[in-house]
Specification:
By secondary structure, the chain is of the alpha+beta class. It has two domains: 154 residues; 165 residues, Heat Shock Protein 90, CATH 3.30.565. The chain is 51% helix and 18% strand. The chain has eleven helices and 14 strands. The strands form five sheets. Strands 9-11-12-14-13 form a five-stranded mixed β-sheet. Strands 4-3-7 form a three-stranded antiparallel β-sheet, covered by helices on one side. A two-stranded antiparallel sheet has the order 1-2. Strand 11 and strand 12 form a beta hairpin. Helix 5 runs parallel beside helix 10. The radius of gyration is 45 Å and the shape is elongated. The two termini are 59 Å apart. Bound molecules: adenosine-5'-diphosphate. The site of adenosine-5'-diphosphate has 23 residues, from helix 8 and helix 10. Adenosine-5'-diphosphate (ADP) binds next to helix 8 and helix 10. Pfam families: HATPase_c (PF02518), HisKA (PF00512). It comes from Sporomusa termitida. It is found in: Membrane.
């Protein structure tokens, strides 16, 4: 599938490059052609419109420009064509001035009254021949001719270069298209591999509770005469596995919704302090059960813009982990306050800590530092992935500091609402203003 996408991307990229190439060269060609003919057309139009014939003579132009490539012809009513004055007196004067310095056998370019004249002098080896113009000629129209061989030649060469350049650059364009497609495929490939990994992890995670349920039910069926009391450990195992599966599926649903962008939060101003209080109160019982002390420092009425249920879920994940990974006799501390224009929630414990190389991976889906410990404690490896998503959805960030064997501290910071007047500030914050 990825190979097909790569081919399709290469074709699309190459096609776009070709379009860009031909658009660019077409604009270049059009501009060149416009520039080449523009001045000639203007000069020809000027010669045609200014041409006047009076008293049997051509009236000289007010500001004559000698353009050796432009010929003005007259057409008579009876269809004869005549070159009235090959070079008028005025022009001849100019020509004489321009060519005054040229030596026989020389080829040179001269500037004269803002124009460049390329000229050449060649020795004359033939007898002199003078042309006598026709009389009795009634003018019907003026024909202006300019030799544009060089322009046409230049444009033809240019067109040839564009086409042959396009053909030659096919290889380069396809190669560039391929390399770009390959570059664009990196994130697609990474997402694809991640997705494959995710699917295989999900299958694996679902298989173990299902196997547990199946084998316990099968064993119960082997002894149909046994009472519920006798089989209660199996029933309990089935219930535990079902619970784990339900939790896993709920987590997967949350992540699937988060991936598809469908899981929108219902945001509003919420009292974060109250949410932390509520979640902490649910964990009081764990504290008793696991012989873990719980220290709570919550500044009053810290308000943020957020989704109450999701923030509740986030705190449950963090506190659940803190209790799960802290042995008896340890301590879990929860704090909520405002610092540096952020609402901070900190959950720390004096538990087992995280191996340093695992720290960057703990937010990955299905990552579990100690698989058996986490699984036994009902962990799915999805908790922190969901926690991270919730924090990011609130525009906040989650950091972790951990030291192996000493404990772990998760610090979550949320931006404060724009117009927070300062509820939840500590006395020091209030003094700072
Ligand atoms: P689960 O807890 O279900 O295994 P999580 O995504 O919540 O999955 O956590 C991923 C991993 O991060 C855990 O398996 C554990 O290795 C590590 N971890 C998370 N919180 C703590 C903590 N408070 N102390 C030590 N390790 C932790």
């Amino acid at each position: 599938m990825l190979q097909r996408t790569l081919t399709q991307l290469t074709i699309i990229n190459s096609f776009v490059f070709f379009i860009i190439y031909f658009l660019f060269t077409a604009i270049l060609y059009g501009y060149l052609s416009y520039r080449l003919f523009d001045r000639i057309d203007e000069a020809m139009r000027w010669h045609a419109s200014e041409f006047r014939f009076a008293n049997g003579q051509v009236v000289p132009l007010a500001n004559p420009i000698f353009d050796p490539r432009i010929f003005v012809l007259m057409r008579s009513t009876d269809g004869r064509t005549l070159n009235p004055v090959p070079f008028r007196e005025e022009e001849l004067k100019n020509i004489a001035e321009i060519t005054a310095a040229i030596e026989v056998g020389e080829l040179t370019t001269e500037e004269y009254e803002g124009h460049s004249y390329r000229m050449m002098s060649w020795p004359y080896t033939y007898q002199e021949n003078i042309y006598d113009p026709a009389t009795n000629f009634q003018i019907d129209s003026i024909i202006v001719i300019s030799i544009v061989d060089s322009e046409v030649q230049l444009l033809n060469n240019c067109l040839w270069l564009i086409v042959s350049g396009g053909v030659i650059s096919v290889f380069g364009i396809v190669l560039a298209g391929f390399l770009l497609a390959k570059r664009a495929m990196f994130p697609i490939q990474a997402a694809w591999e991640k997705q494959q990994q995710f699917v295989s992890d999900v299958s694996h995670e679902l298989r173990s509770p299902l196997t547990g349920i199946y084998s316990n039910a099968e064993l119960m069926l082997r002894y149909p005469d046994r009472s519920i009391r006798e089989e209660c450990h199996r029933i309990n195992a089935i219930m535990q596995e079902s619970k784990r599966m339900t939790k896993l599926i709920a987590s997967l649903l949350t992540l699937a919704r988060s991936d598809s962008g469908k899981s929108d939060l219902s945001l509003g101003v919420i009292n974060l302090s109250a949410v932390v209080h509520e979640v902490v109160s649910h964990f009081e019982v764990f504290k008793e059960l696991n012989d873990i002390s719980l220290a709570v420092t919550i500044a009053p009425a810290v308000e943020i813009i957020g989704d109450k249920d999701r923030l509740h879920q986030l705190l449950v994940i963090l506190l659940d982990n803190a209790f799960k990974f802290t042995p008896a006799g340890g301590q879990v501390a929860v704090a909520c306050h405002i610092a540096k224009k952020n609402a901070i929630v900190s959950v720390s414990d004096t538990g087992v800590g995280i191996v340093p190389e695992n720290v960057p991976r703990i937010f990955d889906r299905f990552f579990r530092g100690d698989k058996s410990r986490s699984r036994n404690a009902g962990g799915t490896g999805l908790g922190l992935a969901i926690a991270q998503w919730i924090v990011e959805k609130h525009g906040g960030r989650i950091d972790v500091k951990s030291s192996l064997g000493k404990g772990t501290n998760f610090i979550v910071s949320f931006p404060l609402p724009k117009k927070t007047a300062g509820p939840g500030r500590t006395e020091t914050d209030k003094k700072r203003g």
